[in-house]
């Protein structure tokens, strides 16, 4: 093997390593982005639920209990939805692998070897990760409310909204870093969107309560 052949072989190996590194980075980026979106969903849905209860019931404890119920229900819902969604993807990947083996003349196409099995998405990991991400976001307003000893509903609302806003800034920065987007613009978009969600929930529930519907 001459010098040029050796160089081509080395370049080929390096190219494969680079492709694998890019692939791994892409997969990590997708998981991180899903985690950020899950945390944002947990944060917004829980704090909006708490603000909605505060609009119709002057009871801080009811507000906190509703937030806790929203955390549990939301985490279970996210885990179930992610499990079902990834299971569908799992079935598609398995069917595709079997077709590829049969196309190559492999009569044992019904079985999936270990190498290909490692490429399949993990159902349990996806469900658990989704539930944990949602719970992490939902815990922010609940922990903030837990530090208020007087349980005055107005004070709890202010503290919860402030904590949620700070968390939205953090999530906006993480989203910008993952998407290689401008940090300031991403933070403004996420925070303003969160404020709109909270305001709409509070306003609609206030209207609901004032009309005794």
Architecture overview:
Vacuolar Fe(2+) uptake transporter. Belongs to the CCC1 family. This protein has 213 residues and is mainly alpha-helical. The chain has helices at residues 3-56, 60-103, 114-117, 123-146, 153-179, 183-210. It has one domain. The protein is elongated, with a radius of gyration of 24 Å. The N and C termini lie far apart (85 Å).
Name the features:
mainly alpha; 213 residues; single chain; 6 helices
Radius of gyration: 24 Å
Please state the average pLDDT score: 78
- Name the helix and strand elements from N-terminus to C-terminus, one letter apiece: HHHHHH
Distance between the terminal alpha carbons, to the nearest Å?
A: 85 Å
Task: Report the β-strand fraction as a percent range.
Answer: under 5%
Largest sheet: none
Instruction: Please count the helical segments.
Output: 6
Total strand segments: 0
Q: Domains counted in the coordinates: how many?
A: 1
Helices and strands: which structural class?
A: mainly alpha
Approximately how much helix is present in the residues?
Answer: over 70%
Poorly predicted tracts of residues:
2-10, 13-25
GO molecular function, one term: iron ion sequestering activity
Organism: Phoenix dactylifera
Catalytic activity: Fe(2+)(in) = Fe(2+)(out)
Transmembrane segments: 65-90, 126-148, 155-178, 190-209
What would a concise description of this structure say?
It is elongated, with a radius of gyration of 24 Å. It contains six helices and no strands.
């Amino acid at each position: 093997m001459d010098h040029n052949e050796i160089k081509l072989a080395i370049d080929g190996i390096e190219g494969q390593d680079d492709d694998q590194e890019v692939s791994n980075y892409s997969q990590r980026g997708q998981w991180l982005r899903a985690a950020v979106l899950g945390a944002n969903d947990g944060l917004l849905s829980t704090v909006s639920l708490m603000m909605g209860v505060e609009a119709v019931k002057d009871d801080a404890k009811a507000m906190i209990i509703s937030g806790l119920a929203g955390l549990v229900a939301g985490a279970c819902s996210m885990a179930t939805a992610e499990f079902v969604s990834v299971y569908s993807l799992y079935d598609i990947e398995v069917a595709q692998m079997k077709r590829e083996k049969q196309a190559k003349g492999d009569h044992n196409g019904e079985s999936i070897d270990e190498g290909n099995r490692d490429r399949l998405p993990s159902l349990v990991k996806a469900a658990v990760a989704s539930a944990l991400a949602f719970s992490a976001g939902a815990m922010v307003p609940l922990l903030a409310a837990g530090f208020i000893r007087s349980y005055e509903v107005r004070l709890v609302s202010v503290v919860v909204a402030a904590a949620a806003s700070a968390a939205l800034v953090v999530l906006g920065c993480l989203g910008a870093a993952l998407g290689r987007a401008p940090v300031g613009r991403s933070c403004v978009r996420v925070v303003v969107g969160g404020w709109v969600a909270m305001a709409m929930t509070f306003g609609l529930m206030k209207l609901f309560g004032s009309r005794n519907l």
